[in-house]
């Protein structure tokens, strides 16, 4: 059986993490995406248990207290975390487990699993990041401004990652991440 691997793809909101994850899963048959827990309200078309496990703050804090989260962080006023059990099971089963998380959480994963591959997805420019976030249309102007402020701090932490990949051309970016995963699995 091929070795399982935990792969974190972090980077600022709107850079394209979800888009890259979807492409990766389409081309890597043994890749699975971890479903995070969050206190954020569901967006239209988001399904509980598929896109996120949507919880109130008490429910989330209970998971933290029970040690059920591999990592967690507060982001733009909401809590987000990775359930530990499903990740451990899938890695033991030889799967590539993909985490779409922000930077504080990514750095916690490094402490929990030194073998994890940490990829930082960077935008071609800050203006292009803002354009993507606004054209997605899921946040109002206040929320976009808050996310861009966090993005400036996150971009300054890119050197803490194993690899920085610029998401300019999507297909090239996905190929670069796929190559990094293949190298980490054989290395
Ligand atoms: N290479 C690319 N070129 C142009 N647009 C892109 C590219 N990659 C992603 N996008 C677009 O940018 C927007 C943000 O992408 P996406 O939702 O995947 O970002 P994200 O990093 O997952 O955001 P969040 O962290 O908020 O969930 C989407 O509209 C997506 O279609
Ligand atoms: N530390 C964690 N960050 C997470 C997790 N799940 C998602 N995220 C990140 O939060 C922001 C905002 O996400 P959004 O869905 O509200 O746009 C983004 O950077 C996600 O990658 C998690 O489990 N832990």
Automatic annotation (TrEMBL):
Gene3D superfamilies linked: Guanylate Kinase phosphate binding domain, P-loop containing nucleotide triphosphate hydrolases
Matching CDD domains: GMPK
Subcellular location: Cytoplasm
Enzyme Commission designation: 2.7.4.8
Gene Ontology cellular-component terms listed: cytosol
Keywords recorded for this protein, A-Z: ATP-binding, Cytoplasm, Kinase, Nucleotide-binding, Transferase
Catalytic activity: GMP + ATP = GDP + ADP
Guanylate kinase-like domain location: 4-182
Principal subcellular localisation of the protein: cytoplasm
Record-linked SMART domains: GuKc
Binding site for ATP: 11-18
GO molecular function: ATP binding; GMP kinase activity
Job description of the protein: Essential for recycling GMP and indirectly, cGMP.
Family membership noted in the UniProt record: Belongs to the guanylate kinase family.
The protein's name in its UniProt record: Guanylate kinase
Organism: Egicoccus halophilus
Gene name of this polypeptide: gmk
